[in-house]
Amino acid sequence: MPTDVLLVYKKTFEAVHDEALDSLSQVLDAKVEGGEVRLDMVAREQVCRADFIGRDLVIVLGGDGTLTSISHNIDSTTPVMGVNSHPREMDPDGSFGFFMDSEVSTFRENLEAVLNGEAIENALPRLQATITSTSGNRIVSDPALNDLLIANTHQYAPSKYRVQRGDMDLKQLSSGILFSTFVGQGAWFRHIANIEGIKFAPTEIDSHYLVVSRDLNRAERELHQEAHIAWTSETTVVISDMHRGYVVPDGWDEYHFNRGASISVNLNGPKLNLLTFNGKITDKMAHLIQ
After folding, report:
1. Closest CA relative to residue 132, chosen from 18, 10, 260
2. What pLDDT does 227 receive?
3. pLDDT (tens digit, 9 = 90+) per residue, 56-97?
4. Phi, psi at residue 102, to the nearest 5°?
5. Which fold has domain 3-118?
6. Between vectors from CA 191 to CA 151 and to CA 274, what angle results, nearest 5°?
7. pTM score > 0.70 for this model?
8. Could you tell me if 129 and 247 are in contact, meaning their C-beta atoms sit under 8 angstroms apart?
């Protein structure tokens, strides 16, 4: 039985992405003609959840943003292969492609490795938020591979909330609270939190996540660059004191809530089965692991 493959590709005005798609299509068409693969191709902007159901393999052609924007649709059992269509080493304006361990030049051999069961599987933890309104309604956010933000929807207004974890109960007035997976910390977290020099235990990187918020009180800011920062495996509960706030996983969909809502955040989201070919994804972050 042929391998059921979905190719999701980035479509822009830049010719480099069209050229990458043409190259991948030639390789995949040969596999279709040989009876090894059944193929569907969908642009990122047109893809929907139903496109991913029952697939044996999802190939994402683009950059990290393309992968994170559609990965919410992918369950934990479906292997995902990232192909960088515009590598930064070939163009300073290209994509870094942290999650994209294949390129156009290596796609043919990488695909063979996948079809032969020789690719490296990475079960990547994902953050997820559960919003419980004052009336008891529950909304579960999409899983976040990189980071998840809780903040006031109005940037000119402070984010007011209580944050609880274990015995901690902290009242805050901040610009928002940001959560990050271990592998996602380079996307946003390290740009707002000073965690340089911190080493992470290898036994914790699949069970712990990072969280940071900066108090808007001037005295608190002068005393602490971050008024609250943690590396934890426990669920964090945020109780809103905002008229209107939102949860944003991976900078994508927004989930709104009002005052009194409770938002629970943890790593209970479905893992992402990401395929790599040059080592485990965490090998790229070996300098951060003690």
Report:
1. 260
2. 76
3. 999 999 999 999 999 999 999 999 999 999 887 766 776 788
4. -125, 155
5. Rossmann fold (3.40.50)
6. 85
7. yes
8. yes
